[in-house]
Amino acid sequence: MLSSLLLFPALALASPSYLGSRELASRAMGDSVEMVASTWFAGWHASTQDNPVFGLNDLSWEKYTSVVYSFAITTDDDAHVALEDSDATLLTQFVSLAHKNSVEARLAVGGWGGSQSYSYAVGSAANRTAFANSLLALQSKYNLDGFDFDWEYPGLQGIGCNVVNPDDTANFLTFLKQLRATPKGANLTLSAAVSVKPFADGTGSPSTDVSGFASVLDFIEIMNYDVFGSWTDTVGPNAPLNDTCAPAHDQIGSAVSAVNAWTAAGIPAHQIVLGVASYGHSFTVSNQNALTSSGALALYPPFDKSNPPPGDSWNNQGGPDQCGVQQPAGGEYEFWGLVQNGFLQANGSVAPGMDHIFDECSQTDFVYNPKSQIMVAYDSAQAFAAKGDFIVNTGLRGFSMWEAGGDSKDILLDSIRSATGFDGDDESEPPCSTETSKTPVAEPGSLATGSSTPSPLALASSAAPSLYHSLSLSYTGFSCIVILLLSSLCIL
Known about the structure:
Layout: H1 2-12, E1 23-25, E2 32-34, E3 36-42, E4 66-74, E5 81-82, H2 85-100, E6 104-110, H3 118-122, H4 125-142, E7 146-150, H5 168-180, E8 189-194, E9 219-223, H6 255-264, E10 272-277, E11 279-284, H7 287-290, E12 319-320, E13 326-327, E14 332-334, H8 335-340, E15 355-359, E16 364-369, E17 374-378, H9 381-394, E18 398-402, H10 411-420, E19 438-442, E20 448-454, H11 456-463, H12 465-491
């Protein structure tokens, strides 16, 4: 009896790897929750007008637990949720295929270009009721398993013409409670795609307490991408794993700082899914600025804002946005686009003639074509594996990739699935090891040298001890306790 009493709580607090590849220990409750391997499916890329087309049958359904169809949009027409005609047809097929493959089918509402009326939809009791009824009608019509609320952003301006109210965050929470209180809403999977900072409070600053959302959302997906781009002063990582090791002026967001902020504000780690990017941002950088005197690739160089690169064939080539404001070309390259445009080889490795550097701080790849003078910040398989390790070591719920069609031959997807344990239970690494790897580091603003410093995960543990260090050591400790207790049972 004594051994059973000792063993049960220890097992409940063990690291994810000891609970199976798709379960995560809930340390507070002693139970487990299903790990998430998710992606967003952009319906517009299934159109025959796109080149290349990425349709429903191109999805590797068996590699996901959940797929989110993007997007339904908010409207000011009685807080109605709208779908394009093509989406309405495709959504039926989407749900059918998802369920055929035992995958959860959810619908994203909003997005960068579809959040104009979110504030209106939750701004009054009447509107909240209409908004909830519109969503539940969609759920019934298409047999959806849930919704992903992609409001960009509560209490803050997004694209430029969104309705914004200081009470947006409070009203959003009130709406979610109302939706959850309905018989159908109680059983739906509800998530929110969020910024790297917690929802804004009434003053526009990040809220210090968003714990109420933890009781009504199954999880949040931190959109840890678009951190650097054409709007920043220098080239930088699109989706940095860590920025606490970067120069102060380049610390504008990362997975480490975002998870720290959201957990400090009241969202448990096991209710956080890390958003990962299958695309990169490009910049026009002169040879003089891109390359050091030794010929190595520099980090955080200045770029020519007046000459944005074209990006790949999926990239927005510029024009008026939803607000009627003229926008330049986006300059994005999907992972397959980097292959198609000669930056990478078919297996994801750097193509001959390209300059490349891997930034150990942000765990980001930078590739540069000295002839076209285009530099792209992107995530390779190595970067995705590092994010998978981070997910496991911090006890996060899983990952969600924007977007499904951006990958090439599942190179990125397979990497993060393997790192997070979805491809089987590989216990080859000693669970009690606390050793940190040491690799050559490319210091921000300099070339990569042979200097040796701790890995970004080790740097995160020292720079963000309130989250990363405590969780990683806790999981290691719990794993060791389990092993020691099992050993003692054999003796008893």
